[in-house]
Amino acid sequence: MYTHETKIRVRYGETDQMGYLYYGHYAQYYEVGRAEMIRSLGLSYRALEEEHGVMMPVMTLNMRFVRPAHYDEEVTVRTTLRELPSTFITFHMEIFNEVGKLMNGGSVKLCFVEVKSNKTIATPSVLLDCLKPYFTSPA
Amino acid sequence: MYTHETKIRVRYGETDQMGYLYYGHYAQYYEVGRAEMIRSLGLSYRALEEEHGVMMPVMTLNMRFVRPAHYDEEVTVRTTLRELPSTFITFHMEIFNEVGKLMNGGSVKLCFVEVKSNKTIATPSVLLDCLKPYFTSPA
Amino acid sequence: MYTHETKIRVRYGETDQMGYLYYGHYAQYYEVGRAEMIRSLGLSYRALEEEHGVMMPVMTLNMRFVRPAHYDEEVTVRTTLRELPSTFITFHMEIFNEVGKLMNGGSVKLCFVEVKSNKTIATPSVLLDCLKPYFTSPA
Amino acid sequence: MYTHETKIRVRYGETDQMGYLYYGHYAQYYEVGRAEMIRSLGLSYRALEEEHGVMMPVMTLNMRFVRPAHYDEEVTVRTTLRELPSTFITFHMEIFNEVGKLMNGGSVKLCFVEVKSNKTIATPSVLLDCLKPYFTSPA
Fold it and tell me: Is the dihedral of CA B106, A55, B7, B59 positive or negative?
C-alpha cells in the first residue's frame, strides 16, 4: 500500500451559490492528489508525459459526497494505492476537512497510453519500480 | 421512464493539454443535462431553489469514460429517470458524439434539502406531479 | 464592422457563493462569443488550428462588470470587430441579460501563431478574405 | 505600498489543448493572490463576508499575457496595493514563472458591498486599519 496526503484550499471561484465547493471540482482535487502522490515518489506526471511519452486518461470515476466543503477551508486529500498497478492504476481518494471529518470518498481508474502510438500499454517500469518497495510481499 | 436530450458544444477552455474535454468537466455537463430535463417538464431547477426553497445536493457520482470528446464537438447529453424519485433521485447519463457513439456513461444521485431548515425531505410534490404521468403502471 | 450574437445559459457550476456568475468565467463566455463569430463567417476556430495550423493566443483582456449575472439566465454575448485585423485581432465584447441590459463589456486582443514554427504571423488570408466584404470602404 | 507573494501550481485541468494555462483561469489566480494578501494582514476574505457582512464584487479586470504558463509549473503571484483603498480597492497583479520571468500582469478593481443592505460602502475599517501602517506618510 502507498498513501500520500496533500492540502488544497477551496477557492472562491470553486464555490457555487449553495455556498459549497461545486461537486464538479472534486475531480480536479483528485487530479492534484494523484499528481502529488507521483511527485512524492520522486517522479512527476509531467515527466511521464514529456520524457517518457505516456499519457494517463481516466477510465472510471466514482465518488460519494459525505459533507460539503466551504470557501477557504483547507482540505486534506489522501490518495492511496492499494495494489501495484498493471494494465490499470486505481487511486483511492478521501478528502477530509480541517477537523479530520471525511467530506468525500471515491476512486479513479486510469490506463496508460503511449503518446507516440496512441495505444494502451502496461504500467511504465519507471513508475512500477518506484512503487514496488511499498508492495513487497512477506517472505 | 422519462428521457430528455440536450446538446452542448465543447469549449476551448474545457479541453486539456491531451486535447480532450477534461474529465472533471463531465460533472458540469451532467448538471446541464438534468437542469434541461427538469425544464422540459415545465419546471426549472432555479425555481425549485428560489420559489420552492429546495436545494438538491449530489450524493454520489459514477462515470465511465468510453471515448474522448474534443474541442468544438457538439455532444448530446441524454438524461434518463428510470424510476420515480422518492428520498433520492437518480439521473442516468449518456453522452454521445456527433455520429452517435457513446463517449461517457454514468449516474448521479441527489437528495432534496429544504433550504429553510437545512433538512432532507422527500421529492417535492411539484416535481413528483410532473413525473408521475411518465411512470404510471399498466392496469 | 462585423457583429455576431450568441446565447449562453449560466450553469450552476459557474455561480459562486455570492450567487453570481463568477467573474473568472466571463473570459470563457468571450471565447464562445468569438468562436461563434468565426463560425458565422463559414470558418471555425477548430479548422484554423487543425487545417490551417494557426493558434490564437490572447495578448490582453479588459473587462468591466456592470451588473451581475445569475444562475439559469440566458445571456446574449455580442462580439464585434471594429476594424480588419492585421498583426492583431481585437474582439469587442458586450454581454446583455434577458431584458437587454448590459451586464459586462470588454475587449480581448489576440495574435496569430503558426503552430509549425511557433512564430507570430499576420492574419491568415482564409480569415481575412471572409471579413473583407464587411469592411470595404466607400468609393 | 503593501505587497504579498503566494505560489500556485498549475493543474492539469487548467491547461488547454494549446498546452498552456487557459487564459480564463488567471482571474482565479488573481483571486487567490488577493485572498492570501488579505490573510497576510491577519484577516481573511471569508471573515469579511461572514463576520463583517461585506462582499467584494469585481468592477474591472485588466490583464496582459506575456509568456504562457504550463502544466505543473509553480508560479508566483505577486499582489500589490499601491494606495490605501477608499471607495474602491485596486490590486496590481504580477505572475512570475520559476525562473522569475513575468508571465502575466494586470489589475483588478473591486468595491465593497454591505450584504445586509446590498449597498456599496467605503473600505471597512477592519481592513483599513490593517493597511494604514504600510501607507503612513513621512512627517
Answer: positive
Contact at 8 Å (CB) between D116 and D62? no
Place of cell 470557501: A71
Angle between the N-to-C axes of helices C26-40 and D26-40, in degrees from 0 to 180, rounded to the nearest 10: 170
Q: How far apart are CA D12 and CA C68, in angstroms?
A: 29
The residues, ordered by sequence, that sit 6+ positions from C29 with a Cβ below 8 Å of its Cβ are: C8, C75, C77, C95
For residue C31, name the pLDDT band (cuts at 50, 70, 90).
very high
Q: Which amino acid is at C19?
A: G
Please, what are the averages of pLDDT over each run of 10 residues along chain A (139 residues)? 98 96 98 98 95 96 97 98 96 97 98 95 96 81
Q: Which of A26, A59, A65 sits opposite B64 (nearest CB)?
A: A59
User: Is A58 close to B68, i.e. CB distance below 8 A?
Assistant: no
Q: How far off is chain D from A32, nearest CA to CA, in Å? A: 7
pLDDT of res. B139: 53
D70/D95 Cα distance (integer angstroms): 13
Give the per-residue pLDDT at B136: 76
- Looking at every residue in chain C, the average pLDDT score rounds to 96
**Which cell numbers hold the place of D10?**
498549475
> H or E element: which one contains C79?
strand C74-81
Determine the Cα–Cα distance for residues C98 and C73; give it in Å rounded to an integer. Answer: 7
Taking the mean position of all CA atoms in its chain, how far away is CA A64?
Answer: 15
All domains in chain B, ordered by first residue: 2-134 (3.10.129.10)
Are the beta carbons of B61 and A61 separated by less than 8 Å? yes
User: Strand C74-81 and strand C2-9: pairing?
Assistant: antiparallel
B71 at interface of D, judged by CB pairs closer than 8 A: yes
How far is the C-alpha of A21 from the C-alpha of A12, rounded, in Å?
A: 9
Q: Which residues of A45-64 are buried (b: 16+ CB within 10 A; e: fewer)?
A: bbebbeebebbbebbebbbe
The answer to whether the CB of A62 falls within 8 A of the CB of A3 is: no
